[in-house]
Specification:
mainly alpha, 4 helices, 79 residues, Exonuc_VII_ssu_sf, disordered N terminus
Amino acid sequence: MNPAANEASTIPADIEAMSYEQARDELVSVVSRLETGGASLEESLALWERGEQLATRCESWLEGARRRLDAARESAAGE
């Protein structure tokens, strides 16, 4: 894991409360803003950190979905 991801490990409450779709959409917006440039260094760093937090939230949602699918497959295989 990269150092920035470690700093982003504390997820703010507003991001923690987001659905996967909300977090993904905001992450797309953050990436777009970073790609277009024009932000100051401080703004860019803040956007980067928020993007890391949003990406972590999306990964968390996807991991939960993987676990649920695996459990459903195991249950179906056991029947």
